[in-house]
Amino acid sequence: MNRVLKKMIFLFVLIFSGFFWVYVQAANVDQGITVNATVPSSGGGGGGGGGGGGDSFPEISNVVSSSVSYTTASFSWSASDNLGVSASSFVYGTSISYGSSGTVTGNYQTSLSGLATGTLYYFKISAVDTGNQTTEYTGTFSTLTAPPVADTTPPIISNVQVDTSITTATIQWTTDESADTQLNYGLTGAYGSNYFDVTGALNHSVPLVNLLPSTTYHFQIVSTDASGNSASTVGDVTFVTKPDNVPPPDVSNFSLSTTTTFIVLSWTNPSLVGTPDFTNVLIVRKVDSPSLVPGDGTAVYTGTGTNFTDTNVIENINYFYTIFSFDTSNNNSPGIFRNGQIVPIIPPTPPSEICGNSLDDDSNGQIDCADSACALLPQCIVTPPPTSTSPGPEICDNNIDDDNNNRQDCADPACVGFSGCVVENQVAKACNNGLDDDGDGKIDHGVDPGCDNADDNDEYNPPEPTVPEFIKLDLNKLIFFGGNRQIILEPISDAVTGLSGTSLTVAVPEVSLFGVPQTMILHVGNTDAHQFVYSSTDKRYYADLFFNKIGLTQAYIEIDYGSDQLDSVGFQLNSLYWGQITDKDEKGLAGVSITLYGQDGGIFEMGNFGQLNPVASDINGNFGWLVPNGDFKISLEKNGYYSRSVSINDVRNHVINPQLNLIAKPVKLELKIDPKESLPTNIKNITVALTGQTKILSTVAVQVIQDVANNPEVEKVNEEVVVPTAVTAVVVGALSFVSWLDFLPFLRLLFLQPLMLLGWRKREKWGLVYNSLNKMPIGLAMVRLLNAETNKVLQSKVTDSKGRFIFMVAPGKYKLSIQKNKFIFPSKFLEGFQSDGQRVDIYHGETIEVKNSTSITATIPLDPVEATKRPGRLFWQKVGRNLQTALSVIGILVTGASLYVSPKWYIVGLLVVHIVVFFIFRKLAVPSKPKNWGFVYDDSSRAPVSRVIARLFNSQFNKLVDTQVTDSAGKYYFIAGDAKYYVTYEHKEYHPQKSEIIDLEGKEAEAITVDAKLKKH
């Protein structure tokens, strides 16, 4: 290696070693900052000397960050050199590009400010010596993370938008930060209803449902951020729902009575449940004819009352009073009218009442202060006690006038749909009650032509039609609407069904009429008369009313075309009672929240049908809806009661009115413990409470099962999945007991030899097929009679449970062929034997020659195959059989439950088939249990030993007959007969054991129940 190359290598090693020493020294400095240092070489002098004769690089050490805060930092360091340091600098930044510099003061210090909080900074310190050689030192530091500033600024609400329809509205707004969604709304500035969603969002949207048409609603928006700062809209903000064009129904029970000086009117307003947007009624008076529109006549009453007395009347003038219903959209009903006049009666002047003599001087049935003539005397003025409460709603079954309207229980209009107010059969019919129900001056059957018989409940009949038959109005031309004119109600047997208190619209298409009618009136019952109003939009005549009292009410449409051209058509209104929620005492349960769900599982929108959803049960527990036909589900919720979900399947009459029961939750057990009572008393209280809770939970369980069973989805799954699965379970479980090779002979025995199956035993001599080792008869063996010369099968028989068979044959030569699953014919064990114990004429397959017509009754032994079974296989075979039995039983139980869910005829048939199949195959495959058992037990402890392998051998042939495994009680048994046997016992923890010879020769089949003692190894 030449000298120049050696010098170059030496110079490279020297520079690299110096660089490494400086790097290690700088890296060892640790003052809470991360640092390293590099010392690049510099050409500090001319040519080849590299440093001007012994000059070294500057050294940077003792780098210290004396203080690092949120926005400031201070650094100090030392710089030295053998020739002297000429300059030092400090640069820093958020990347290795730096970008900022600190002012270096004496003794190498710098202070930094204006730093960002919680930020990583990179820095570099440089030192230059007088020889222009430079050393650089790099590192990082991080400013402190400033604590979060408390948020005290509420969100800003903006861009408020309201989108309204007839019964719904959507209110939207935005906030400048994530906040929850709250909305207070109602009919006044006090609101009363609210919507709340805790989910934070920037864009907010609130859907409102079940609103009244053409109604002003007040609302307030509130949004609160995560720090609890709230903001709300300022002032009273309102929106107005859009009006509808469906008029409310007419009032019902409109009656008119007269006195000598005034006319009294009374009526029942449309139910707010069925017509929530009802506002008021208007009564218009007119002379000699009814008012067709609200402005046709003199308005005498406007309000929400149910009676009015007109005192501004003149004698002997026929006044017509037409009453119109109005809703929030200012729609009005077609109107219902009554007419009457006052006819003065001049009574004789009665004597004056003398107040205080205890006599009825004026003969008016009233004495002294009870007489109106004395009412103003001081001694007759009685001040009623003050009351602090207003009357409550009417409770329909307590015999009290709760709302103080002088109508009690079922007589109160509030109870029109109460299920307990159904008209009973014993109530006198209109044609047999001694009253003039239709106001025509004629009373009951025999006098009033409107009474067809004494049981007729309607005294009114329309005039006889005079128009030709071919132009008469037919019932099928009428259209009946419910649910805000959105649901078409189809008459069934001339009856239109609806929920009591809900609206009904009767429409008559113009094309169905003979001409333009002068009048068209809808008469309902004995007194109500509703006018029709023509709509040019769809060219129909409309009359609006509502389903009134529960039961059937006769109605007629009467048409007068003029020129004595009259027509009429009749139908019935079938008013159904409301649904009701009751408690355990069958009392109405108020305040239950009831929600109706559609087939898609979502809340069913009832606003389009003029009804509310969800609803709360009223004071009597009543609720109900008029809906399109279909499948629905309702949920019931009330504090202190178990919730309930009920399926309403296949609604066909548009009415949902179930009678349901809610179960109260029991009192918590800890509330039954009274520290003031003794321990026995508390135990008694807890025991009683536990008993009550058990009863309640049982009732709830039954209720849940019933509700689930009534679910149409459950019924569908039951019929399409559960029943087929149960069929498979029973068939698979049952068929697993026996092989098909046994099943097919059984069918042959069942259908071709039924008397043998039933146990026919009149014949004493039979052929016999039996097991050559245990001498037991073999059932369901197929025995064939063959022509000995042609081997053609002449007859076939199947042995019964006793192994018996018989052939009746003519003279000839025959052979027998026997087939049985897991057996061999002819027997090898008894080959050459002519008898076997009590059994003689052993048959081995020889030709049988018959010279006279007789029977063939051979004794045929069969040798078993696969007699040796592994213990593990025996154990799992037993487990499998138990599982098969359980599967089959479960299948039968599931089919029974399916029958409860879906009571269909074919499921009844499947259940019967399941039971028959199960027991037939059990009889075929499972032998009967013996009355006695053999026991294997420990010689020392006398404890039973399970899992012992017991084997039965035929001692004559020393062949294995059967194998059993003892159960958990050490029990086992074998069935055998007419031979000698012995039993061996094996267990891995015990010495093998062999029994004495068991002699059963000359005996019928019996159980081998030998007890055995085993000694442990």
Automatic annotation (TrEMBL):
Q: Which residues form the signal peptide?
A: 1-26
Q: Which residues form a coiled coil?
A: none
User: Which superkingdom is the protein from?
Assistant: Bacteria
Answer whether the UniProt record assigns the keyword Cell membrane to this protein.
no
The record's annotation in InterPro entries points to: CarboxyPept-like_regulatory, FN3_dom, FN3_sf, Ig-like_fold, RTP_Phos/Ushers
Q: From the record, give the transmembrane residue ranges.
A: 726-751, 879-899, 905-921
Checking Gene3D superfamilies in the record gives: Carboxypeptidase-like, regulatory domain, Immunoglobulins
* Ranges for domain Fibronectin type-III: 59-148, 154-244, 247-352
One cellular component GO annotation, for this chain's record? Answer: membrane
Sorted alphabetically, the keyword list is:
Membrane, Signal, Transmembrane, Transmembrane helix
| Protein name, as recorded | Fibronectin type-III domain-containing protein
Provide the species name.
Candidatus Magasanikbacteria bacterium RIFOXYD1_FULL_40_23
